[in-house]
Amino acid sequence: MINEFKSFIAKGNVMDMAVGIIIGAAFTAIVSSLVGDLINPIIGLIIGGIDFSGMYLVLSGEVAPGTSLAAAREAGAAIFAYGAFIMAVINFLIIAFVVFMLVKMVNRVKDAAIAKEAPVATAPKGPTQEELLADIRDLLKART
């Protein structure tokens, strides 16, 4: 059983998957910082300084007006945190776009590498102008 486990771990697919998960975790931290520290403030400026993440509705319970989302949750009130959901959707869209651009760039680099490796197929050359004229001359002579 140990030998079977060793052969399973040694397979390329498992190692590729492990590397992908580790890089994905690191990439998530970078993209989260990009979204939270750079893009969200720009969105806040565009929409008038509104921070969606703290917006909520109280469904039941006693919460004083102006209470933060964290304080409302701590007070045990049933809340509808629509702002956090809006921010999660915005983060998802930005992350999906960044991943799309990354995959597009990697595919472009891969295609360029494949194009360098592939031999350039040359089209067969046709007859020259002189050869065509000679053929026409010979055909005309054969008719007469």
Fold and architecture overview:
The chain has five helices and two strands, in the order ααβαβαα. With 144 residues, it is mostly helical. The chain has a single domain (2-121), classed as Non-ribosomal Peptide Synthetase Peptidyl Carrier Protein, Chain A, CATH 1.10.1200.120. Strands 1-2 form a two-stranded antiparallel ribbon. Helix 2 packs across helix 4 (82-117).
CATH overall fold name: Non-ribosomal Peptide Synthetase Peptidyl Carrier Protein, Chain A
Taking Cα atoms only, what radius of gyration do you get, to the nearest Å? 33 Å
Q: How many β-strand runs? A: 2
* CATH architecture type: Orthogonal Bundle
What would you give as the CATH superfamily? Large-conductance mechanosensitive channel, MscL, domain 1
Portion of residues in helices? over 70%
Low-confidence blocks of residues: none
Q: Quick gist of this model?
A:
The chain is built from five helices and two strands; from the N terminus they run ααβαβαα.
Annotation keywords:
144 residues; mainly alpha; Non-ribosomal Peptide Synthetase Peptidyl Carrier Protein, Chain A; elongated
